[in-house]
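Table S5 (text form). Sequence records supplied for joint modeling of the two-component complex.
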Amino acid sequence: MCRSVDVRTAVLAKNDGLAAELRAELARRRVTAVNLLSSPGSGKTALLELVLRRARERGQTVAALTADLATENDARRLARSGAPVRQVLTGGLCHLESAQVRALIDDWLPDPTRLLFVENVGNLVCPASYDLGETLRVTLMSVTEGEDKPLKYPTAFGAAHLVVLTKTDIADAVGFDDAAFTTAVERVNPGVEILRTSARTGQGVDTLLDRVLAVAGGVAPHAPLLAAKHLRAHGHDHGPAQDRHHEHDHDHGHGRAPRPTTA
Amino acid sequence: MHELSIAAAVVESAEDVAREHGADAVAGVTLRIGELAGVVPDALRFSFSLVAEGTALDGAELVIEEVPARARCGGCDARFAVGSPPALWCPHCDTAAAELLTGRELELAEVRMAGSP
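The corresponding structure-token record, covering 380 residues in total, follows.
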């Protein structure tokens, strides 16, 4: 016999709660945060450098955080755009958590900043589980990565508000099958928009910026089916669910049927 | 390997629950993990045993209930298994799903305290 407690708490409730507070703080400061997810080498930094530059040319106040395990190389590259940039060194951690973003928002983010781009650690697995208080989650991949990548990493692509294809200037050279890619994205995220971009030719840079500015202006982003509930119901954060502790005694033995979900 | 961070969050939450209930040690915890939660149960088991060492959960049993991903069709309202890799389209009428019903769970469901109540 042992005492057990039903808790039904989200394991990442602490991060989710901090993300909700961060989203509220960003809204108060009129900042729209964009979380960029991709594999290493997909061209996030090159594309972001252009987006930052274009945003400044279009009179927008922008800033960027870029996360890597080591080196400040990406911050240096992004800073060439003239926008304020901070490097986050995760010291080996495979993803960003909202507490890391929060610390920089409090200590560094200049006022006013309309758009804050957060370049996550290059990784399509772990960052997908962590809400960073963003309004827009963008998942990117390059034409060299294989058309079926959205099926291999369904959480990253399925929870995206926007999907961005990069390096389209070499699509023909690498035999990229755009139709197969589109089908794969649609399978895990029906209705999501796919933007085709090239940092070399500048294709799609303005369109990407337009989409981000639209959301900053109040247009609701696409609602991905795989998004965590708090991300899907953008603007309706309620923080971590209150624990409903419920004690009971029972014998060991775990043959119980799974409980119906509360989600 | 964010399973290590997740294991740390599980241990922290379970220690909080144990403390609230005046227990010094936790005999076991049950997690519910959805098919599309992006968490690998085996990696989590491995991480859990490492993170639990020296805490109130040292030696605690980890039970993982895997939750299949199911969606509701936006056309005919049928409920269907999403499968792997997931297809969020109805197998009956080929309409996009309106809602994912289950499959994203990453929940601490139960904490079992050691010792008598």
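Note: The mean pLDDT of chain B is 93.
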